[in-house]
Write a structure and sequence with these properties.
The chain has eight helices and 15 strands. By secondary structure, the protein is α/β, with parallel strands linked by helices. The protein has one domain: Metallo-beta-lactamase, Chain A, CATH 3.60.15.10. The termini are far apart.
C-alpha cells in the first residue's frame, strides 16, 4: 500500500498573508510563505487485480473555508471520505463546498467521519445539509459516522484516530498505514505517542517558535517527532512568525516546514518520496 499526504493548506486560522499585516512574511514573494488554512488529502493506492492499475482512495481531512481553491489546484473533484479533526471554523466552515465533490462523485452520499461531539456540532451549524427533507438540490448529501478510539474503515482503508489535546478540547489526528497527520494540538499524550509508533511520515502542528496555549511550538513539535521516531516530519498550521527559507535552513535533515501543494508519500517498499509542486508565478505584494 502506498500512502501519500498532499498538504492542501499549511497556514494558521487566518491564513498567510494575514489581512492587514505588512510583516515580511505576509509581504513575501515566496510561494511557500503563502498558506491557505490547514488541511491535507490522503491518497491511498492499493494493488488492483492482475492486469489492472492500482486503485486510489482519496480521504480529505477537514473542510476549510479555502476548500474550493484547494480542490481546484490539487486537481480532485471527488473523495471517498471526509475526516474531521474538530469543528473550529478554519477546519470545517467550507462544508457547503462539499457539494462540488458530491456532484463529482456521482451524487453518492459522502462518508463524513468525526468524534461524536464534532458530528453533533456540524449538524447544528449546517442543519440544512443534514436535513433529508430539505428540498433545495444544491447541497451535498453526507453520511455521518462517529468514531472514538478504535480504528475504522473508509472505502477499504483502515484509519486509526489519534487523540490529541488542543487547549481544553480533544482533536483527532489520523494515521493511515505508516503516515499520519496531526493538527491543532499543544500536547500529544503518551497513549497517542504509542499509537504513532512505526509512523515513517508525519505532518504535525507547529504554529510558531514561542510557546502557545493551544498549539505546538516548533521546538515542542520537533521533540514529539523525535519521540515517535519518524523518518520525515513536515510542520503545518504555521503562522507568519516562521519564514520558510530561514526556518528550513535551521531544521535537521529529517524535518521541514510544510507548504501548500507539497506531496510526500510512504511507498510500498517503505521509502519516503517527496514531490514538490510545479513553479507558479509569484503573486503580487499587497500594499495597505
Amino acid at each position: 500500500m502506498r500512502v501519500e499526504i498532499e498538504i492542501l493548506g499549511s497556514g494558521t486560522s487566518s491564513g498567510i498573508p494575514t489581512i492587514g499585516c505588512d510583516c515580511p512574511v505576509c509581504r513575501s514573494h515566496n510561494p511557500r510563505n503563502k498558506r491557505l488554512r490547514a488541511s491535507v488529502l490522503f491518497r491511498v493506492s492499493q494493488p488492483g487485480l492482475p492486469g489492472q492499475p492500482a486503485a486510489e482512495t482519496r480521504l480529505l481531512v477537514d473542510v476549510t473555508p479555502d476548500v474550493r481553491i484547494q480542490a481546484l489546484r490539487a486537481g480532485f473533484s471527488s473523495v471517498q471520505g471526509v475526516l474531521i479533526t474538530h469543528t473550529h471554523a478554519d477546519h470545517c466552515h467550507g462544508l457547503d463546498d462539499l457539494r462540488g465533490l458530491y456532484w463529482g462523485g456521482g451524487r453518492e452520499p459522502i462518508d463524513l467521519w468525526g468524534y461524536p461531539e464534532s458530528i453533533a456540532s456540524l449538524k447544528r451549524t449546517f442543519e440544512y445539509i443534514f436535513d433529508l427533507e430539505y428540498d433545495y438540490k444544491g447541497v451535498a448529501r453526507l453520511e455521518p459516522h462517529e468514531f472514538d478510539q478504535a480504528a475504522f474503515v473508509v472505502a477499504g482503508v483502515t484509519v486509526t484516530p489519534i487523540q490529541v489535546v488542543h487547549g481544553k478540547m480533544r482533536v483527532a489526528g489520523f494515521r493511515v498505514g505508516d503516515a499520519a497527520y496531526i493538527t491543532d494540538c499543544n500536547e500529544v499524550p503518551p497513549a497517542s505517542i504509542e499509537k504513532l509508533r512505526g509512523v515513517k511520515l508525519l505532518v504535525l502542528d507547529a504554529l510558531r517558535r514561542a510557546p502557545h496555549p493551544t498549539h505546538m511550538s516548533l521546538p515542542a513539535a520537533l521533540k514529539v517527532a523525535q519521540q515517535i521516531g519518524v523518518q520525515k516530519v513536515f510542520f503545518t498550521h504555521i503562522n507568519h512568525d516562521l519564514e520558510h527559507e530561514a526556518v528550513s535552513a535551521e531544521l535537521p535533515p529529517w524535518a521541514g516546514l510544510g507548504y501548500d501543494m507539497l506531496r510526500a508519500a510512504v511507498e510500498e517498499n517503505g521509502s519516503i518520496t517527496v514531490k514538490e509542486p510545479a513553479p507558479r508565478p509569484n503573486p503580487p505584494v499587497v500594499s495597505w
